[in-house]
Amino acid sequence: MDSAAAQVRASAIQVVRGYVEERGGAFASLLDRAGLSKDLLDDHIAIVSLARVVDLFEVVSGYLKDPCFGLHLSAQVPPGGTGLLGKLALSAPTAMDALRTTVLFARVFMTKVDMGCREHDGLVYTHWVLPAEITAPRL
């Protein structure tokens, strides 16, 4: 894979796998359609193309006929259910600290994504900008 491309750990697809398989879906075939290797089913720490993982979300959304798949997927994750990130965010003294922690943690798993947060005049501003190479539709 092009090292200049945005990347993410393969563990990002595991929650998607569980969601699809709980609904009787054949997840491995969806990996193929998104241009991802079936080897990722057993290698959670591999580095993969973020663009292909985003494409996987689009493929799964169509497969499940759920245009809000990403929201439904995230809604099933219980508070703190994201492992270390969830624990850090829940134990943060303020919402701003939780957001900063999330940004720092996300940078461990993803590259080339412009993300951050700042506070100004009592308001919190966040940004999460995917690189231009990510071509999946966005709602």
- Output the helix-strand order: EHHEHHHHEE
Integer average pLDDT: 85
User: Which regions contain 5 or more consecutive residues with pLDDT less than 50?
Assistant: none
> First CA to last CA: what distance?
27 Å
The fraction of residues assigned to DSSP E strands is 5-15%
Textual characterization of the structure:
With 139 residues, this protein is an alpha+beta fold. The protein has 2 domains: 1-77; 79-130, no CATH class. The protein has helices at 14-22, 27-33, 50-63, 69-75, 84-91, 95-109, and strands at 7-9, 47-49, 114-120, 123-129. The longest helix is centred in the C-terminal third of the chain and has 15 residues, at 95-109. 17% of the residues are buried. The model has no long low-confidence stretch (mean pLDDT 85).
Short key terms for the protein model shown above:
139 residues, alpha+beta, 2 domains, two-stranded antiparallel ribbon, 6 helices, 4 strands
Task: Write a short abstract of this structure.
The chain is an alpha+beta fold and 139 residues long. The chain contains 6 helices and 4 strands.
Secondary-structure topology with pairs:
Layout: E1 7-9, H1 14-22, H2 27-33, E2 47-49, H3 50-63, H4 69-75, H5 84-91, H6 95-109, E3 114-120, E4 123-129
Antiparallel strand pairs: 1-2, 3-4
